[in-house]
Design a protein that fits this description.
This protein is mostly beta strands. It has one helix at about 5-15, and strands at about 30-35, 50, 55, 60, 65-70, 75-80, 95-100, 105-110, 110, 120, 125-130, 140-150, 155, 160-164. The protein has a single domain (about 30-164), classed as Glucose Permease (Domain IIA). The chain has 1 helix and 14 strands. Strands 1, 4, 6, 7, 8, 10, 12, 13 and 14 form a 9-stranded mixed sheet that branches.
Length: about 160
């Protein structure tokens, strides 16, 4: 059982045992993050070089098992796999896509806590960050965030986060 699954079980237990205040998951209320700097696997900045392409989002450093909140209102339009689900090493990794006003916001490396079709309000918990350190040696633990505008172009999402 991974850290997210354990936290979800504890959360469900609290919901049964306690009052409404305990129903709110323990999250970093401000959701302040630092962009993953240079490590053994590269850099987490928007536009950073990635072999034969550029990085289309930002990698935001966080501990594994942290509840991640949506930055926008919208509808969950996709829960997907960034890698082939049959891949023994990375096939369990997931992402959540929230769409609002033609913009798509993707949160990678989360255990989803929402379903396709769910209506999301900014600040709602949408998932729990997955552990990447067992897959990628020397990487800083993080989740990846992308913003795709209505025109299909990637937008630098840095302004959407309170960065440390």
């Amino acid at each position: 059982m991974n850290k997210c699954e354990k936290r979800t079980l504890v959360r469900k237990k609290r919901m049964v045992e306690s009052d409404n205040e305990a129903r709110i998951p323990k999250v970093n209320a401000m959701q302040q993050f630092k962009i993953r700097g240079q490590d053994d696997q590269g850099s987490g900045y928007f536009g950073a070089p990635r072999k034969n392409r550029v990085h289309n989002g930002v990698d935001l450093a966080c501990e594994s098992g942290l509840y991640i909140k949506s930055r926008t209102h919208g509808t969950v339009t996709k829960i997907g796999y960034p890698y082939d689900p049959a891949d023994e090493k990375k096939g369990h990794l997931r992402y959540v896509e929230v769409t609002f006003d033609g913009n798509r916001f993707r949160y990678f490396y989360l255990d989803p806590m929402v379903q396709v079709g769910d209506k999301i309000v900014a600040g709602d918990v949408i998932g729990c960050s997955q552990d990447l350190t067992e897959i990628y040696t020397g990487i800083t633990q993080h989740f990846h965030f992308e913003w795709i505008g209505p025109d299909g172009e990637f937008v630098d999402p840095t302004s959407m986060f309170d960065l440390l």
